[in-house]
Structure formats: structure tokens, C-alpha cells
Amino acid sequence: MTVKLIYPITLITSRFGILKGKILPHHFIKMKREGIKIVMITAYTYYQALIADAAGVDGILVGDSLGMVIMGYQSTLPVTLPQIVHHLKAVLNARPKALVVADMPFLSYEVSRDEAVRNAGKLIKLGADAVKVEGGTEIIDKVEAMIKAGIPVMGHIGLNPQRYLQLGGYKLRGKTVDDALKIIEDAKALEEVGVFSIVIEFTVAEVAKKVTEIVKIPTICIGSGPYCDGQVLVFHDLLGINPNPPPFAKVYVNGFELFKEAIKKYVSEVRQNVFPEEKHYYRMPKEEYNKFNALLKEKLKRFKHS
After folding, report:
1. Of 49, 48, 28, which is closest to residue 39 (Cα–Cα)?
2. Is the per-residue pLDDT at 4 higher than 90?
3. Choice among 115, 201, 261, 287 that is catalytic
4. Is the pTM of this model over 0.90?
């Protein structure tokens, strides 16, 4: 019996080949089951995404942290959906194998279920593999609506930077019994409506460990200890570009000093006429230059007498 293909084989490759080797939300759940640690990093530009993907991360978060590390805001609150869209496009142009998660900025999902679905849908239509939202039980109806619409959602509990004004600052979470139980309640509520993973930020390690043990979906820690199923760090913190990283971030290289010294050298070489060297520019063929010089002299004479 001959089976007639609906698509030519080349079309199957181009339409469905995107799945080959590409990390999707269900891969994160599989990694938890298999005990493989998940590694995520934020990225906001084409080259950042290219570098992160080449380094082998599992997930790239186009985070609202761009407000602080790209725009220089004092918090993430001023970040807008168009700004997330702008940076998401740049990251997607790198065509990363890693899962690409787009942050939903403050007030892009809290107002109503319809608005949450509409805004999350914009990010998915652009090419994001999932969206991330901050909060627990207080936003559960919006999260449920997004998931029912077919949008993969990553939760974010513990410290929610978008709620720092309510919390009284960027404070460590889970230190008290009541707060610890609230975090557990948030995690369970998010799992029950169908999020595929949960970020736990700046929370005591014991509570993050309990959440990780209780839920079947993966947990991604940032400043919450080693017991989560994975870790996420901000690009500028990890590479030392941010001179004042949060206390929980490990700095792997002093990028600020590295880049500063490179630029200082450039400034010095230009002023001393060391740069550019012969290898950095191009010359006319000698015969062409002689012709050009002769014609230019004639033109200059005409300019002088006109």
C-alpha cells in the first residue's frame, strides 16, 4: 500500500524541522523526571542570545530585568510590552535551540483574563516558546485563561520584583512560617492550573527545596539555593557587566573592567594615531590613484577660478 504524503518531504523538514533539537516546555518537565539540571540565562539582544545558545543553556528568558540592565531604570515597573516585543524579536533572530521565554511586564496581565490572553498571545505569535508571569493565587485566574488558550506559562513565586512596593522592597522570602506556607500554596495553585515550570526568586533554600519536592513540574531558582531543578541568572550579573549585582548572583568574569579596559585602549590608540593600522583599511590601485589625483587637480583649478 502506498501512502500519499500530505506535504513534500522538504516541507516536512521546513515546517516541522523546527522541533528537531529545539527545546520546548515539555523538555523541561522531562529533564526534571530524569534528574538533569536546567540552566537558564536572561538575554535581550541578538548576540547575547547567540552566545548563550552556543554555550549550551537550556532556556533564554527575555526578562523585564531589561528595565534595569538595559534601560537603567530603578525597577522593572516602567517596562512596557512593546519593549519586551522589541528585545524578543532580537533574541529570536538568533534562532536559538534553547527555550525562549518572554516575560510579561507589570500590568500586561493583571487587569483581566482577556487582556492577559491577548498580550501573552502577541508574544507567542512573535515566536516565544512560553511566557512568564509573577505571582501566585492572586493571578491564578489569568494564568488558567492563558493556559486554556494554549499558551505555555512559566510561573514566578517568592520575591516578585513587580510587587516590590507591596513587599516593602526586595526582601528575602520564606523566612517565616506564614510566608513559607504562602509560597507553597502559590506553587501548588500554579501547578494545578497547568504551568510547566516555576521560577523561585530570593527565597530561603529550605522552602525552595520543599516546593521542588512537592510539585511535579520543574523549579528554577534564582537566589534560592541549590535544591531546585535548575538555575537562572541575569546575563549582566553573570558576566560582571553590572557593577552592583544582587548578593545571590555569582560573577564569572569581570566584564565591566574587561570592556572598560578594551575601550580605554581604543581611545588611547586613536589619539596616538596607532589605530587604524594598515590591515584595517584599503587603498586605491596605484594607476587609479594617479588618474584620480590628476583629475582632482584640474577640478580644483576650476573651483579656484569659478
Report:
1. 28
2. no
3. 201
4. yes
